[in-house]
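Aim 2, interim progress: modelling of the pyridoxal-5'-phosphate-bound target.
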Amino acid sequence: MIGVCPTSILRSQTKYASRNLADASDSEVIGMQDQLVDIFTRDILNLPKDFKHGFVLHSGTECNEVATFIHTKQSHRNIVILSTLTHSSIENACLKLNLQLIKLPINPSTLRVDNTLLHDTIQKYNERVLFVVLTYGTTKLGTEYDLEFSSDTDKLLKENDIKLHVDAAYGGTILSFLASKKSSWQAYLSLASITVDTHKFVGSLGCGLLILKNLEDKKHIGKNAIYFSGNSTALGTTRSAYPMATALACINHFGSIKMKLIAEECRKNANIIAEAMKKYGYELLCDIESGVVPIRLGSLKEVEYTLSKLHDLGYKVSPICIDNISSTIYGFRVVVTPKPQTRKAVLERFIKSFPIA
Ligand SMILES: Cc1ncc(COP(=O)(O)O)c(C=O)c1O
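Predicted structure of the complex, ligand included:
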C-alpha cells in the first residue's frame, strides 16, 4: 500500500536522500527521527508516556522482524501466538529465528480469533510463549483487529510475563485518524512493541517505525545502540533519511485535521466501491472499516479469473486467500489509500468496468 506525497515535498526533501539515518553525528537527521517518533507516540497513536523509544526503519516488514528479534533476546521462550490474518512478515521472522508459531483460525462470523480460543491457547503453552501478535488494521480485510483481545487477555499476558506486539503497519495511521474514540490496545500493560508504517498513508516508500516501551529493549538490537541514544547505528546498515524526511514534511504540511479528512475520504470511497459491488451481486467479506474493500469469491479459480480480467482492463487488485486452518476464505480486495491512483474519479471508472464478463 502506498500513500500520498505531493511532488513539491518529493522535490524539497531530496537534500536528505544521501544523508544516513544511521550516522549518529548527523544531529539534524537524528532530531528528525526523534520528532517523527514523538508525533506518532503522542499525537497519532496516543501511547502512554513510557513509549518514547523508536527506530525509523525501511518497512513494516523490517519493524516486525526487528521486534521479533528483540523479544527473543530477552527470553528463552520460543512460541509466538498469532492469527491466520497476521501479516506474513511475522511468520517469516519467526521462521528465520527458529521460533514456533501457533496460528489461530479466525471465527468466520466475527473474522476475529475467539477470546476463549486465545485464552485457552495462552494457558496451554503459558511459560513457553514469547509474545502474542495483535494486528491493528488487517491487511486482507482492513478490519480493526484480528483477535478478540480484552483487558482480561492483557491481564493473562501480564501475569504470565508474555509480551504483546501490535502490528499497526496499516491501521496505525488510517484507523488512528478514523477512530471516534480512543482504542484500548494502547493502554494494555503487556504492550511491548508496535510497528507502524508512514508510507501506507503519507510520504515516499521506505519508512516504518518500530516503537518500544523499554529502553533496555533497544540495546538488544546490537552493541552500540545503548551508547548513542537516538541513533540506529547498531542496526548495522546504511539507510537513507529521505523517506523519513518526506513523511515528516507531509505530516507538517497536511496537519492532523487534514490527515483525518484524508482518512475519512479513503473510507468514504471504499464504501462507494462496496455499495457498487453489492449492486452488481458481489458479497463483501465484512463491513468497511478502513480503506480496504474485501469482496468474497467462491474459489481460487474465480480469484485468478477476476484478477486477470481486471488486469487486462488496467486495474491491479490483490487476491484474498486466507488459509483459515480448516477452510479457505477467497476473494479480492480493492485498497483505497490517499494515493492519486485511488482517487474518486479513478474508482468511478473502475466501478463502470463491472460486471466483468
Ligand atoms: C499489517 C501489516 N503488517 C506488515 C506489513 C508489511 O509492511 P511493508 O510492506 O512496509 O513491509 C503490511 C503491509 O501491507 C501490513 O498490512
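The chain has eleven helices and eleven strands. The mean pLDDT is 92.
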